[in-house]
């Protein structure tokens, strides 16, 4: 990984903002990811993220924290937050913004336990592909303290396969429709291609069943997106 994402965050943080990140996927053309959005405050966040922040309690792990926007809000509210990301640039920025406990780390290498684990801005993306979902989910479950919760957002991107006549051009013999190849470039440099997973709620719920997590729909967004809460199934029995 060249860490162009981290480089872009560092540029913005250090006052060198001249252009945005350019993204594209295996099913969509180039699009801009505005850097200011990655530094959004509470008011600039989608309602799903605001809801997740309101539900966060106890000790919190912010997985894939980016520049640390969610962590910063929670830390300012007096909550104990740990922010992790695989991007060194992202962690440097999170620290510069004042996150006390920020660490460059893959979530699969995390071993501490938490009351709340946040995965936001298509939190299922880091699972990369459907075949890896249960591995990530059971690891996340192992990081929960008794009574703990995972708050995660994603979308059903089926609409991206809809043509102008309302028909769908999805190849039903190919892989799950939310599995995408994701391409990112910044200031003329290309990042190595990544896999990025969008999961519809029902598929997430079925995957949760396989690792004994109860998956609850908390809120639906405006565009096929949703926020879910995952809790160990046994703790979920009333
Ligand atoms: C879409 S960005 C979201 C950033 C931030 N949560 C936000 O909402 O602005 C996804 C982040 O996840 C990080 N990431 C990807 N895979 C990861 C992993 N396995 N463990 C930790 N972080 C990961 C990426 O480096 C990136 O910063």
UniProtKB/TrEMBL annotation:
CDD domains: AdoMet_MTases
Top-rank taxon, per record: Bacteria
GO MF term (any one): methyltransferase activity
Keyword annotations: Methyltransferase, S-adenosyl-L-methionine, Transferase
Biological process per Gene Ontology, one example term: methylation
Keyword Transport: no
InterPro entries in the cross-refs: SAM-dependent_MTases_sf (IPR029063)
Keyword Cell wall biogenesis/degradation: no
Name of the protein in its database record: Class I SAM-dependent methyltransferase
Organism: Flavivirga rizhaonensis
């Amino acid at each position: 990984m060249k860490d162009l994402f981290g480089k872009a965050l560092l540029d913005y943080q250090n006052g060198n903002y001249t252009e945005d990140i350019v993204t594209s996927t295996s099913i969509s053309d180039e699009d801009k990811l505005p850097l200011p959005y990655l530094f959004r405050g509470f008011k600039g966040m989608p309602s799903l993220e605001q809801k997740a922040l309101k539900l966060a309690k106890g000790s919190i792990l912010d997985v894939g924290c980016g520049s640390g926007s969610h962590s910063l809000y929670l830390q300012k509210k007096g909550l104990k937050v740990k922010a992790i990301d695989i991007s060194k640039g992202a962690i440097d920025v999170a620290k510069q913004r004042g996150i006390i406990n920020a660490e460059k780390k893959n979530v699969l290498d995390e071993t501490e336990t938490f009351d709340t684990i946040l995965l936001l801005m298509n939190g299922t993306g880091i699972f990369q592909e459907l075949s890896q979902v249960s591995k990530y989910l059971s690891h996340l479950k192992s990081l929960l303290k008794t009574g703990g919760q995972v708050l995660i957002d994603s979308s059903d991107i089926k609409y991206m396969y809809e043509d102008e006549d309302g028909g769908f051009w999805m190849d039903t013999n190919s892989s799950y429709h939310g599995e995408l190849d994701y391409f990112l470039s910044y200031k003329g440099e290309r990042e190595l291609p990544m896999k990025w997973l969008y999961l519809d709620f029902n598929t997430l719920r079925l995957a949760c069943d396989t690792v004994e997590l109860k998956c609850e729909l908390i809120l639906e967004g405006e565009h096929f997106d949703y926020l879910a809460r995952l809790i160990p199934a046994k703790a979920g029995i009333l």
